[in-house]
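We were asked to recover a plausible sequence for a given structure. The inputs and outputs are reproduced exactly as logged, with field labels preserved.

PROBLEM: sequence recovery
POSITIONS: 249
GIVEN STRUCTURE:
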């Protein structure tokens, strides 16, 4: 109650700033009350941040259903703001998180696996908001031959869109698709270029090992000339657009 009374004396924007200050100074327990107050009073970033905290168990017990509810709040309350609104990045990110939950479901909760819903959510975020992470996830869904509407052409389209925006995972998967698809033998060198570019940008974390393995496999099959051309192309891309780097996940 004391925390509620204290929040009543500040604006939602001030509460958001206070919650962010506490979070980034390492006092995550003190960030919760102001973030919740801000989320309940029109601050999309606060609701999104709480969703991320519960999804990752970051300063709170991990709770996917609670995270799902916060991400749903962001989408429900702010998706009509439009792709150019200040809330747009948080709405797009929340949509991606919801799509991932629909892909797997959340055990022992009303949130069940629903690949149709996941594709619908990813498509909205990918097309309306132009979100690279959504485009990447949509590409992966179209690549999966165990899912309905499997379509490698559409997969290539969405992966390329994300790759050009700097999504490292999309660069690797787009390159793999071009390099290892038999019908696209003339595109092999282009595929190796994208995989080399992805390899150049990873930081070596556990989530990036698949990119290293993929690139090494392709590199072992390529000629010396192809390797050199790919390395030169990747270096040129980074010089021109090195500031454009997105997630690898």
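RECOVERED SEQUENCE:
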């Amino acid at each position: 109650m004391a925390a509620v009374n204290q929040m009543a004396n500040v604006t939602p924007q001030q509460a958001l700033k206070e919650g962010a200050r506490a979070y980034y100074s390492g006092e995550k327990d003190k960030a919760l009350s102001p973030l919740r107050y801000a989320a309940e009073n029109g601050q999309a970033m606060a609701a999104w941040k709480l969703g991320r905290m519960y999804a990752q168990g970051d300063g709170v017990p991990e709770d996917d259903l609670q995270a799902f509810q916060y991400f749903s709040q962001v989408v429900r309350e702010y998706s009509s703001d439009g792709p150019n609104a200040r809330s747009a990045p948080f709405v797009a990110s929340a949509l991606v998180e919801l799509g991932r939950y629909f892909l797997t479901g959340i055990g022992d909760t009303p949130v069940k696996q629903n690949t149709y819903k996941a594709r619908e959510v990813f498509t909205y975020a990918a097309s309306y908001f132009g979100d690279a992470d959504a485009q990447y996830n949509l590409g992966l869904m179209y690549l999966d031959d165990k899912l309905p509407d499997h379509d490698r052409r559409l997969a290539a389209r969405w992966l390329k869109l994300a790759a050009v925006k700097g999504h490292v995972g999309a660069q690797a998967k787009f390159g793999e698709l071009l390099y290892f698809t038999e019908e696209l033998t003339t595109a092999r060198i282009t595929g190796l270029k994208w995989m080399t570019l992805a390899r150049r940008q990873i930081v070596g974390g556990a989530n990036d090992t698949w990119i290293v393995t993929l690139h090494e496999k392709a590199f072992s099959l390529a000629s010396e000339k192809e390797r050199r051309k790919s390395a030169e192309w990747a270096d040129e891309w980074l010089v021109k657009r090195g500031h454009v780097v997105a997630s690898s996940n």
